[in-house]
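Minutes, project check-in
Item: structure for the 287-residue chain
Input as provided by the requester:
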Amino acid sequence: MRSSNPVFSRRGFSRDNGHAGFNAAPQAGGPAVGTNPYATNPYAQQQGAPVGTPQAPPSTGAMTIDDVVTRTGMTLGTVVLTAVLSWVLLPVDPANMGMSYGIAIGAVLVAFALSMIQSFKRKPSPALILSYAAFEGVFLGVISNVVSTYIAPGVVVQAVMGTMAVFAGVLFAYKMRWIRVTRRFYGFVMAAAMGFVLLMVANMLFSVFGGGDGLGFRSGGLGILFGIIGIILGACFLALDFKQVEDGVAYGAPREESWLAAFGLTLTLVWIYMEMLRLFSILSGND
């Protein structure tokens, strides 16, 4: 099963792209492999032993939850650090608003380019991932400063707390098995995400060429509705990401894959934060 996260869907964390370092049998405590290991183990080695022949899990070099937590902490820490530095060192004011937006747009374009390069690389690159996190942090720092200063004071704290609450809530629900990631769940989330993105692109185009607020998907009642939908989609992405990480650990994915896990989780959390920031900004303006 592929994750909704483009990082996980490129390689490693997908059924139809085996990795030479993955083992056909899960580690101790992992889910049992059935008569056809390729039907349940997305990381089964496609070469070497015949189908159905289990292999001993490697004693070293396999990804663990601690690896994922450490790499995610490093990646998110870089985002937060550069966001804070951008907030402090790149203050926004009406006279330089154009420059502030230019810095934010430039940073997010570089971050997007780096994320695409990493998504298509055969192996994770810590330097690329941390560079992406740094530029993403610059973008978030400038945009958050603008929103907090001129649109909705105090909304950044609400957005951060909301993002943390969604992460904790989804993790708890996933561990309790209240959320079950299945093919149907994956298909529904992907279809909903594609529709959501297409509507947002259409809204942006109408806004650019028609002026005003486009189709109205980012303001008023519709803006609140689509903000909530965006957050729910982000929560679904988190569940899919947790599933991919869980499977990777259970089936002995290489330790380097923990960088991809950190990268993907960071992308999802940035998505949720931006939707939270938009939603609380609209709600603040409606008070």
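Outcome recorded: The two ends are 44 Å apart (CA to CA).
No further action items on this chain.
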